[in-house]
Amino acid sequence: MKVWPYLFALPFVVLYFAFHFYPVLYSFWLSLHDWNGVGRKTFIGLRNYATLLTKDPLFYKALYNTVMIMIMSVPAMILLGMVLAYVIFQLAKGRVFFQTMNFLPYITTPVAIGFIFSFMFDWQTGIVNNMLLKLGLLAEGLQWLQDPLTAKMIIAMMIVWRNLGYFMTIYLAGMTAIPQDIYEAARVDGSTGLHTFTRITLPLLRNITVFLIVTSIIGGLQLFDEPKLLYGGWTASTSGGPDNAALTVIWKFVNDSFITGTRFGYGAATAYMLFVIIVLFSIVSYRIGSGKEEKA
């Protein structure tokens, strides 16, 4: 029996169990206790979960906000990423330049993105209000960041602006992998650009679309950086934005565990409930995507 492969894999396995698998199990065990991080842990069973689901309306508010922002952003990223990739794919010159320019926001730090959008939509000095006022479309500046609906829309815009380059790159890689013989045969048969895109390109990119939808749902339900930096930093005095319209599940988890309280057991229960929700959403989205593929 050869032991060298196991010896080479042993460091990774040990580190994985020590820094990933064990913390996951420990957090579940912690969710069954009442603990403030200092005193003695008190076993309370499923009480944290019962409180979260029956006595904490802010959890449902945070979950609603997270899902609404995800609904606003994910379809836009899928559609715009696909169209942008197709346009760049058709370019004869300058493809690398446009790929790089569109990918730059994805590697921009979230802190910088928070500053950019805070400046853009500021009530007094924001460039958006100034432009609309100069064009005569507004009589006075709007408080974009203080309205619950526009707050969600701005966060969705931040997500789309940041991740559009990533979606474009994935779709562009998928289009490049499609054999050119298929397009040549379509041109011989008289297929136009729109017909080729809808009848050939889109079906062949279905697996990529399913992958992006599933990963977007997983990432969207873990949304934290954009709302936190927009409303929890230097521009805001309260957590969660106006009427908690920007509060997400992860932000609530951070608040309960480390900021407004030190309820580590309750925070662990929130994290595990989010894990269950992510699994359910992922299974549903994957089955819908694979179901369409089987019918096709």
Automatic annotation (TrEMBL):
Subcellular location: Cell membrane
UniProt cross-references to InterPro entries, sorted A to Z: ABC_transporter_permease, MetI-like, MetI-like_sf
Span of the signal peptide: none
This protein's record includes keyword ATP-binding: no
Transmembrane segments: 7-29, 62-89, 101-121, 153-173, 204-224, 264-286
UniProt domain ABC transmembrane type-1: residue ranges: 63-285
Protein name, UniProt field: Sugar ABC transporter permease
Organism: Paenibacillus whitsoniae
Lineage: Bacteria, Bacillati, Bacillota, Bacilli, Bacillales
